[in-house]
Write a structure and sequence with these properties.
Largest sheet of chain A: 5 strands, mixed
Strand order of the largest sheet of chain A: 6-5-4-7-8
Low-confidence stretches of chain A: 1-7, 9-20
CATH superfamily of the largest domain in chain A: Glutaredoxin
Distance between the termini of chain A: 108 Å
Strand content of chain B: 35-45%
Distance between the termini of chain B: 43 Å
Number of strands of chain B: 28
Largest sheet of chain B: 7 strands, antiparallel
Number of domains of chain A: 2
CATH architecture of the largest domain in chain A: 3-Layer(aba) Sandwich
Radius of gyration of chain A: 30 Å
Oligomer: heterodimer
CATH topology of the largest domain in chain A: Glutaredoxin
Number of helices of chain B: 11
Largest interface: A-B, 76 and 87 residues
Strand content of chain A: 15-25%
Number of helices of chain A: 5
Helix content of chain B: 25-40%
Structural class of chain B: alpha+beta
Mean pLDDT of chain B: 87
Number of strands of chain A: 8
Chain lengths: 224, 560
């Protein structure tokens, strides 16, 4: 019968180990093998990533600065001399605040969090500065990083913060305002003049002199 | 035409790949994989023998530089080249990760190159073999073919017995003989593939964890919150410690640490629970473990007296210890006038002490401790208005002076911290926590107000100028480790796969047989194997057929 039939493959001296890559069948089988592996690893990766939870803050965050409110004619960037990037954020009391709505007034924009010791150290100075220059139109906007409303309100009550507070829940505003660099960290403050242009910035807790110096650049003549 | 072009393309690709065959053969070689594993094991040994850059400072180049500078004292001029070679950070060194990737590729290729062959062998086995195979197979058993029983011939009976023995059987008739092919648990050949796949998944899991994993250690006081990422992050979460508990036995050894946590994300509470060392809390792919506990924290608050606004609020970890004497003072009758730990407020040279007023007596003495040359603590006592009262005691000693008996019981350490930022006259202050004899914790703040040591009892304000100082109470700290290990699932799957692969390989009785039944003689042949499964199966088949084996051999086919 089967004189023409080969011995079983396992009996053959030349197993798959010695084969090269030549032959389309070999290439196909290797591709299929890797595809199976990729599917397994990819599936497990997806299984792992399914737990990732995106923060739902739809509608709030960075918004486009209306052209009519950009006197620089250049794209808004968190740099001295450039138009301040606009944002719309919720206040812990349930309201909203849009930065560009404050144009016409000098703004001190401060990024902070209750868990940040230098921010806590700086707050009494901001409270005092606001008290001194509120009558001259100064607005301090304290942007809290991603904390719960109750925590922020509790802190505001304890430290006597009378200026507007907003919460950057998704970190979008913090990213655009470059809290990740050039100097990473908070507190970070920007001094924005009445026309919406950034005039100065300060990294770290500001002593009274630094606040006065920054305010001198944005407050109306005779102020600061 | 399109088909012909495709075939040409495949052929072209195959020719191109043929040039890579030497590389392919190297990567698919088991010896090369073993060499890589040996190299990685050696690297692991190096990481044990050489100091490694501590995890918390790896992201800070300045801190790493300082650490390497410190190593210079041990390794001299070799420290810098060793650092550049990654010998102080073996597991994150490029050469280590590169070797790991190469091992993964090697094992992948090793596995991939064998899979098509194994798959073919499982799904399309060679069912018919030449007659020569029955003469020179590694395993074979021969016995006399029995007469048909009740019209059923030996081939049919053998097939039936094999099927009972869980073989799938195919039969082929040819001139003068019936050939059978019997295969049992053919799929078990995939067991070795599963084991190889498991190794790949182990490596992939390790790489994913290394590249995408996250670990952060938080040190959080009760009632306060810490973020898990620095500054802001799209997945930022805050961890609030509601209650940190440390339980200790009578010897002071820790029995249990646990912490009640709340996790916030996007401004909302998303998870809450109690964590222990072995029972973490999980949320969003992150696990929160209890990693440490510290019981000596003080919640200090300073208010603007005029507005009532807080101007300073910190929970201070009192991680330093100041030496403080425990003394007893008795009067002539032996009545105890003072039995307490004396909180030091003056630091003179190497001595720390304070001026005390003896209760009911009214006289004042400066008492302090210092270490002598043998590092033994001694107590110094000076009478403020009595120059004749001046003496030194060793621990455990007593002395009569000025009508009083002073006993130096021992020196203890009081939790303290030297910290900046407390509103007052000086940039630095020292905060010490002690307890009244009744066990109430109180704070002594030195330096905040010139010339005064502020003693603050819980929830009692002390107003100095326009500032009001308050000790809000003792707080405990929890060390919480936040961990995300995206490769963990892969590693668990790999572990399961490896176990399954090994179980299948070693315990599933896989066997493949070929039989030739001729009128006088029946031969059963099998492939070479070491376990003796063929021999025992052949004996069982012969027994069930009711025949005697006339030839039963096992040999290694020199050709095969």
């Amino acid at each position: 019968m089967a004189q023409q039939i080969d011995a079983p493959a396992e009996e053959q001296p030349e197993g798959p180990r010695r084969r090269g890559l030549g032959g389309s069948g070999g290439v196909r089988s290797v591709i299929v093998s890797f595809a199976i592996l990729a599917i397994i690893v990819g599936g497990l990766w997806y299984w792992e990533r399914r737990a990732d939870i995106a923060i739902d803050d739809s509608g709030y965050g960075v918004v486009e600065l209306p052209a009519a409110k950009n006197i620089t004619g250049r794209k808004p960037v968190a740099e001295v001399g450039r138009a301040a990037p606009d944002f719309l954020l919720e206040t812990p009391q349930g309201g909203t605040l849009r930065l560009s709505d404050l144009q016409g007034q000098p703004v001190l924009l401060n990024f902070w969090a209750t868990w940040c010791p230098p921010c806590r150290e700086e707050m009494p100075e901001l409270v005092a500065a606001y008290k001194r220059y509120r009558a001259q139109g100064l607005v301090i906007v304290a942007v809290n990083l991603q904390e719960a409303d109750e925590k922020v309100l509790e802190f505001a009550l304890e430290f006597g913060l009378a200026f507007p507070l907003v919460i950057d829940r998704s970190s979008q505003v913090g990213e655009v305002w470059r809290l990740g660099g050039p100097v990473r960290g908070i507190p970070t403050s920007y001094f924005i003049d009445a026309s919406g242009v950034i005039r100065s910035r300060y990294f770290g807790p500001m002593p009274e002199e630094a606040i006065e110096e920054g305010l001198a650049l944005i407050l109306p003549e005779g102020g600061g | 035409m399109a088909g012909a072009e495709t075939a040409q393309d495949w052929s072209k690709l195959a020719r191109g790949l043929e040039r890579l065959s030497p590389v392919w053969r190297l990567l698919s070689s088991g010896g090369f994989a073993l060499a890589l594993i040996g190299f990685l094991a050696l690297a692991g040994l190096l990481s044990i023998m050489l100091p490694q850059v501590p995890a918390p400072i790896r992201d800070s180049p300045a801190a790493v530089e300082a650490w390497v500078e410190f190593q210079r004292g041990k390794f001299g001029p070799l420290a810098e080249p060793m650092h550049r070679l990654g010998l102080f950070s073996v597991f994150s060194a490029r050469w280590f990760l590169g070797t790991l990737v190469m091992l993964a590729v090697s094992v992948s290729i090793y596995t991939a190159s064998r899979l098509p062959y194994i798959w073919r062998n499982v799904t399309s086995p060679q069912e018919q073999v030449p007659d020569a195979f029955f003469d020179r197979a590694a395993n074979r058993a021969t016995f006399a073919t029995a007469e048909p029983i009740a019209g059923v011939d030996t081939a049919s009976r053998l097939a039936a017995v094999l099927r009972r023995r869980r073989f799938s059987v195919r039969s082929f008739r040819a001139e003068g003989a019936t050939y059978l092919f019997a295969d049992r648990f053919a799929w078990a050949q995939l067991g070795s593939f599963a084991s190889h796949l498991a190794i790949i998944l182990f490596l992939a899991g390790g790489l994913i964890s290394q590249l995408g994993g996250y670990t952060n250690a938080l040190f959080i006081a009760e009632g306060t919150t810490n973020p898990i990422f620095a500054v802001s992050h799209p997945k930022q979460m805050q961890v609030e410690v509601i209650d940190a508990v440390g339980e200790f036995d009578e010897a002071g050894l820790p029995v249990d640490y646990r912490t009640e946590l709340v996790i916030y994300q996007g401004g909302r509470e998303v998870e809450r629970g109690v964590v222990t060392v072995n029972k973490p809390l999980s949320y969003g792919g992150y696990r929160f473990h209890q990693a440490a506990y510290f019981g000596e924290g003080a919640d200090l608050r300073v208010l603007d007296a005029a507005t009532g606004n807080t101007v300073y609020r910190e929970v201070l970890p009192l991680q330093e210890l100041v030496p403080a004497p425990m003394i007893t003072i008795r009067d002539r009758q032996g009545a105890v006038l003072l039995d307490d730990v004396i909180v030091p407020t003056d630091f003179i040279a190497e001595a720390s002490g304070t001026l005390i007023t003896v209760p009911e007596d009214g006289r004042q003495f400066w008492v302090g401790v210092k270490q002598d040359e043998d590092e033994a603590w001694t107590l110094a006592v000076f009478g403020r208005d009595e120059p004749e009262v001046s003496f030194v005691l060793a621990a455990g000693e007593s002395r009569q002076a000025g009508g009083l008996e002073f006993t130096f019981v021992e020196t203890t350490g009081l939790p303290s911290i030297t910290t900046p930022g407390i509103p007052g006259d000086n940039p630095q202050s020292v905060v010490i926590m002690s307890e009244t004899p009744e066990g109430t914790a109180y704070l002594t703040v030195l330096g905040a107000v010139d010339g005064r040591a502020l003693t603050l009892y819980p929830n009692q304000s002390v107003q100095i100028g326009d500032k009001e100082y308050r000790f809000e109470g003792r707080r405990e700290f929890a060390g919480i480790e936040v961990r995300r290990d995206p490769g963990a699932t892969l590693i668990w799957v790999a572990a399961g796969l490896l176990l399954a692969g090994l179980l299948v390989t070693f315990y599933v009785p896989r066997l493949r047989l070929w039989a030739r039944v001729r009128p006088q003689e029946t031969v059963i042949a099998g492939l070479a194997e070491r376990g003796g499964a063929f021999q025992s199966e052949a004996k069982r088949l012969a027994r069930e057929l009711g025949v005697q084996t006339v030839e039963n051999e096992q040999e290694v086919d020199k050709d095969g």
